[in-house]
Amino acid sequence: MDPLLRVHEAHKNGLIPDKIHSLIIKRFEVALSGIQRIEKASGINFPLAYVEPSIVVSHPSAGSFDYGILFARTIPVISNDRLNVIIQITAPLVAYGLKGTIHAILAHEFLHYLELIRKISKMDIVSDEISSNIFESNYSDSTPDSLNQEPYLMTRLCYCI
Questions:
Q1: Range of 25's domain?
Q2: Which phi and psi angles does 3 have, rounded to 5°?
Q3: What is the model's pLDDT at position 106?
């Protein structure tokens, strides 16, 4: 699957101007280098990732004025009776994010992926976890020892979390 397919479709449909489309294509290399860096540091393949041509805004409850912008998220998807975990990266992050920010966000999502896989493998999934918003969701991120060998990435990652 082309990770930029949805961006190309949005451009073709006139939703993304030529200049922004070109910027996303050009800067996608920054995201790819972050994925390669995480794979090298962890020794684990990064899950399927794609660029969403829009921004994701979260609004936790009807009576609240709190909003959050999600620049990336980890999404479990069932397709053909198979569980896949996909990392969704937003086009604004790719187009305008700093290299260190993009890499840190990708590493953060990778830890969510690892935690999700850990929970699934231990059958430790509950559907009734309650939090007032997405930012309070309880993730007990764990770090593989091989990631500790990448101090710059770890300082950025820990700063993000």
A1: 5-126+136-160
A2: -65, -15
A3: 97
